[in-house]
Amino acid sequence: MLRKRVITAVILLPPVLATLWFGSTPLVGLVFGAAAMVAVLEWGTLTGVRRDGASPAVMVVYVGAAAALTALAVWQRHTELPWVLNLATCLWWLVVLSWIVRFPAGFDDAHPPRWLKAGAGLLVIPATIGAVVLLHGSPDGALRLLFAFALVWAADIGAYFTGQGFGRHKLAPAVSPGKTWEGLLGGVAWALLVSAAAGTWLFKLSGAAWLPFLVVCTAVTLLSIVGDLGESLIKRQVGAKDSGTLLPGHGGMLDRVDSLLAALPAMAVGLRWLGL
After folding, report:
1. Which contiguous run of DSSP H or E holds residue 73?
2. CB–CB of 143/202 below 8 Å?
3. Over the stretch 124-165, which tens digit does the pLDDT of each residue have?
4. Smaller CB count within 10 Å for the chain: N or C?
5. What share of the chain is helix, strand, coil (3-state, %, to 5)?
6. Residue 232: phi, psi to the nearest 5?
7. Reduced to 3 states, what is the DSSP secondary structure of residue 178?
8. 206-234 b/e with 16+ CB inside 10 Å = b?
């Protein structure tokens, strides 16, 4: 899994960095929003928006609604709308956490209800793009957004290596058998190293400002893991290995951004709470 993500990152990182560095905030929202529509399509497929025999128009309407909400979040980035969407998304992932803890108990073809899981895609993905433009539009916005990405990547890489070397106790075996508690702790530790670097050089923190900052970064890291497990849970429920086939041998767009869908809204909300 890590090798696949590294290869994907090597392919996608240069255009992503170029967009962050040289693009205006509306352009960043447009580019990331367009890519996110692939994730919307995959989310809709996994959650049964279009059932067997249903008209393709159902999925067109679903993706169109997500695109409209995403455009609205970008357009209204100077209002409270993106913040409301981000906060609601953080609450959604806490609901998902409650599902992960008790999976597979209470899960079947109808539970949780299909409309709830499908409808969440119309919240989570537009909110994530809203978080992208909020972070990018703030002072040192490209660096802030890159920090949010790096936090998730560090947690992912740290969890992999720590889990491979020391993993003994399964984290959520019914959802993702390969993840361990040791890996989670290692991922958090790696993410905190990135946080310490960002706090020193990007945010220039001192004294009492450090503790709440590290608490927020830890919470963002843990939510990124919930995002990863949440997508795995939905795939397990429908018997899917990957969310799509966009990247042959690597899965779909949703497989690559699941952690970011939880982390970016949480980061935007957390930095606002900290006044940074």
Report:
1. helix 57-75
2. yes
3. 999 999 999 999 999 999 999 999 999 999 999 999 899 888
4. N
5. 75, 5, 20
6. -60, -40
7. strand
8. eeeeeeebbebbebbbbbbbbbbbbbbbb
* 117: nearest Cα among 61, 180, 47, 50: 47
Helix (H) or strand (E) holding 177: strand 176-180
Residues in contact with 118: Cβ distance below 8 Å, sequence separation at least 6, in sequence order: 43, 44, 47, 48, 49, 62
Tokens of 216: 């927020």
Distance from C-alpha of 227 to C-alpha of 131, rounded to nearest angstrom = 15
Side chain identity at 220, as an amino acid letter? Answer: V
**Distance, CA of 263 to CA of 219 (rounded, Å):** 9
Q: How far apart are CA 37 and CA 183, in angstroms?
A: 31
Q: Strand runs (DSSP E) across 48-125, as ranges?
A: none
Q: Exposed (0-12), middle (13-18) or buried (19+): which is 9, by Cβ within 10 Å? A: middle
pLDDT (tens digit, 9 = 90+) per residue, 12-43? 778 888 888 888 999 999 999 999 999 999 99
What's the CA dihedral at 118, 9, 142, 223 to 10 degrees? 40
Give the SS3 label for residue 204. Answer: coil
- 27 forms beta bridges with none
Residue whose pair of structure tokens reads 């692939």 in the numeric block: 38
Question: How far apart are alpha carbons 232 and 49 in whole angstroms?
Answer: 18
Neighbours of 44 (CB within 10 A): 21
User: How many of the other CB atoms lie within 10 Å of CB of 274?
Assistant: 14
Q: Where are the domains of the chain?
A: 2-274
Supply 16's token pair.
């992503």
